[in-house]
Design goal:
By secondary structure, this protein is mainly alpha-helical. It has 16 helices and no strands. Pfam families: NnrS.
Length: 419
């Protein structure tokens, strides 16, 4: 009986298949449109590679893009909102049918149309000098509105089990409208200040999403390894970290040069770092498991970012704060996208989580690239080299992702289940 259970466990993941019984009866759905994450990851990986390398070339003066008169602001916007909408679309269209049994998965033609809207948003961004800001604003804001409509069951859920995800998306939509209002001249606030607020809101959304990802991924990993324990992501720790991020973001916007912000940065860093204590289980040691290490690196990077920004403010050296912010953006947010793409790429294609030389290298390169870019204040003489080489190193993991995962994304599930 034990061997039979073991064999059944090896055939398919145990926690990511309940919603497939509601899979729509749609004929001739190609594998790349068979579930929400598939087309998104197929497009997102190469888009990240192209965007990061192009930015490195633009920043170093090797390449000139006409519309980028404020290249830094637009680069930050695209890496925050452009990538976020793809990541949220993959997460919601894959995860909501799992969180709300009975919800019909979003596949086939309907999925193709919404992915096309995201692609049009990216095209409008790169051609904004020709098509204008209005078109880019309409396409990108429409994308977030659609995501909120798709997630309406989360917000309207009477038990409010996952409503925080929906409320976070509403706040991010409001911030994006605010940003475009600034660019169109309706408000006088600088776009870069609004994007700093957006960074805080996105980090909050990521922490909320990672609670769900951790619960599924770590427990499924332990089940595969035969570890008899349960991982629980404790809400009070997450809520404290979210409060710290929200407070730091608010004070930075209102009083960016106030020394109290430095202490808030250190306190926020401590609250985020405390999230790693969830990986210390009562009976079993799991911090030697690769995916636990991968996931723990996310709060570690975020914590380093807020700690060094706080330290920088307390030392009256405002120049370095935006470089240290790369621990949050390139590091914490970048790792979040990559690791979720890896986990979903394995689990939701009917495979078990697997770590190997490729997954190790992907994570390591993101960390190294982040260190190169975030520590520029200590090596200012090499700023040009650090920027271009860190851009290349940061892009390589997504090239490796294409090599490792594209076959999974373009073929039916390994366990024969639809999706």
């Amino acid at each position: 009986m034990e061997n039979e259970l073991k064999n059944n466990t090896q055939e398919q993941p145990l926690h990511a298949t309940n919603h497939y019984m509601y899979y729509p009866d749609e004929k001739d759905v190609p594998p790349y449109l068979a579930y929400g994450f598939r087309p998104v990851f197929l497009l997102l990986a190469p888009y990240l590679v192209i965007s990061m390398i192009l930015w490195g070339l633009v920043w170093n003066g090797v390449l000139s893009i006409p519309f980028m008169d404020a290249s830094l602001t637009w680069h930050i916007y695209e890496m925050l909102f452009g990538i976020l909408t793809a990541g949220v679309m993959a997460f919601l269209t894959t995860g909501l049918p799992e969180l709300f049994p009975g919800m019909i998965p979003f596949v086939g033609q309907r999925l193709k149309y919404i992915v096309a809207l995201w692609v049009l948003g990216r095209v409008s961004f790169w051609t904004i000098d020709i098509t204008g800001i209005w078109l880019t604003a309409i396409l990108n804001i429409s994308m977030l509105i659609w995501l909120l409509w798709f997630a309406k069951d989360v917000v309207l859920d009477k038990l409010q089990r996952h409503a925080s995800l929906g409320y976070s998306l509403i706040s991010i939509l409001a911030i994006e409208i605010w940003f475009f209002s600034s660019k169109l001249g309706f408000v006088s606030i600088e776009g870069i200040s609004i994007l700093k607020v957006a960074t805080g809101a996105i980090v909050i959304l990521i922490l909320l999403a990672l609670r769900r990802v951790n619960m599924e991924a770590v427990n499924e990993l332990m089940e595969d390894k035969g570890i008899d324990d349960i991982y629980i992501s404790r809400p009070p720790l997450t809520n404290l970290a979210i409060f710290g991020i929200a407070l730091f973001t608010t004070i930075e916007f209102l009083y960016p040069e106030n020394s109290a912000l430095g202490w808030l940065g250190l306190a926020t860093a401590a609250s985020i770092l405390a999230l790693t204590s969830d990986y210390i289980l009562k009976d079993k040691f799991i911090l030697n498991q690769p995916y636990v290490i991968y996931l723990a690196l996310i709060p570690l990077m975020l914590s380093l970012g807020y700690a060094l920004m706080g330290w920088d403010i307390l030392n009256d050296n405002i120049y370095g704060i935006n470089h240290f912010r790369h621990f949050i953006t390139s590091g914490g947010i970048g790792l979040s996208y990559l690791i979720v793409m890896m986990i979903i790429g394995f689990v939701h294609t009917g495979r078990h989580l697997t770590s190997n030389i490729y997954t190790h290298i992907m994570i390591l390169l993101i960390v190294i690239a982040t260190l190169m870019r975030a520590l520029i204040p200590f090596f200012e003489n090499y700023i040009q080299e650090l920027y271009i080489y860190s851009s290349i190193l940061w892009a390589i993991p997504f090239v490796i992702y294409i090599k490792v995962f594209y076959n999974f994304l373009l073929t039916p599930r390994a366990d024969g289940i639809k999706g």
